Amino acid sequence: MPLLIGIISVAITLQMPNVYRARTTVMLPNEGGGGLVGSLLGLPPGAQALLGGGESGYTRYLAILTSRTVAEKAIDRFGLIEAYEMEDDDFPRQRTREAFSERVEFPLDLEFNHLAVEVLDESPERAAQIANFLIEVLNQEHIRLTASSAGERRAFLGTRLQEAEFALDSTQASLQALQERYGVVEIESQAQALMSSLALAQGAVSEAEVAYQALLSQYGPENAEVQAAQAALQAARSQVSELTGGDKSVMPVPLRNLPAVSRQYASVMQELLTQQEILRVVRPLYEEAVISERRHASAVQVLDPAIPPELKAAPKRSILVLLSTFATGLFTIGFILVWSWWRESGRLLLAQLIQQAKRDR
To answer: Which residues sit opposite 25 in a β-bridge?
Structure first.
């Protein structure tokens, strides 16, 4: 039996077509977000790329390579429906995609930080061509997706930057109009100067009033000194009136209107500072987005392009023949042992069991 099965297995394996494995490798991008964690944990670069999430690295490449779009392009490019003999199937494209996914592998080397694309095919030339084509499509899709997301981010930040610049110009124009309307330049310092001048003026009024009353009670209203003191009092009161009514040299806004003007001035200044802060934050983000868009316009780096392999990857005929012969030998030996035991003791044991069953009845 082992000899017969060995001969049959040899005949069967000789009918099996050779399958070749073509391999190409690409560098993983060093943009993962797990760099700090990976460094703290002592992980190799490839593992750190996995921690980086879906923005870049192995996960992004694998998502592209395993997509239906890439498989459809490979099927159409190399006529895999006919090559895999799926023309007579009820669902040829779906069956071809399933067969194609079984013949493609994407191993990751965590130590040396590179991704490989391996393709199995009966034709070594076609296996190499498919592997290189997958990298070509990976380049195209990677550029399209990253450039698209980076372009959208750059466009959004550009629009926000223009809005902030326009709002800043509008706020500066409003501040200028407010300053020209009320004659204020720096309302806080001007208000402080007004309060100081007003305090001095009111102090002068009090001093002049005391001097006037003292002279009036002593000399009467017709005295020259009394009249001079009265004139000084009126001048001091006039100074206070000018300050509260809007002195052009100190504060050209009447004191009763100062709260409303201050509120308008504060609102405009708040908007001005807000837009300046937005510009301070958005401008470097916009410049970074422009640089990122240009950086993503480069393709992935190919380390080793695929070449037609010289040695087959499958089938392992010698292993298949040895395994089938060895398994048949074990099965034959077990069968012989069971059959011998049955011939020597099995029938007698069965007869005893039948007699015992009859006695129990």
So the answer is: 116, 304
Residue 12 has pLDDT above 50, yes or no: yes
Whether residue 64 contacts residue 141, with contact meaning beta carbons closer than 8 Å, is answered with yes
What are 307-352's pLDDT values in tens digits?
Answer: 988 888 777 777 878 888 888 889 989 988 888 877 777 767 777 7
Whether the per-residue pLDDT at 268 is higher than 70: the answer is yes
The string of pLDDT tens digits covering residues 152-201 is 777 788 888 888 888 888 888 887 786 667 666 555 555 555 456 556 66
Helix (H) or strand (E) holding 288: helix 258-295
- Chain-centre distance for alpha carbon 245: 61
Contacts of 197 (CB under 8 A, 6+ apart): 243, 247, 250
Report which of 177, 47, 173 is spatially closest to residue 112, judged by C-alpha positions.
Answer: 47
- List, as one string, the DSSP characters of 246-279: H-TTT-SS-GGGHHHHHHHHHHHHHHHHHHHHHH
CA separation for the pair 186, 161 (Å, rounded)? 28
In the structure encoding, which two tokens stand for residue 298, read together? 């480069």
Structure tokens at 296: 């993503």
Q: What predicted TM-score, i.e. pTM, was given to this entire model? A: 0.50
**Distance separating alpha carbons of residues 334 and 311, to the nearest angstrom:** 38
CB-based contact 22:124 (threshold 8 Å): yes
**What are the φ/ψ torsions at residue 311 (nearest 5 degrees)?**
-105, 145
Count of other CB atoms within 10 angstroms of residue 184? 21
Quick one: CA dihedral 124, 130, 133, 135, positive or negative? negative
Q: What is the DSSP string of 109-155?
A: ETTTTEEEEEEEESSHHHHHHHHHHHHHHHHHHHHHHHHHHHHHHHH
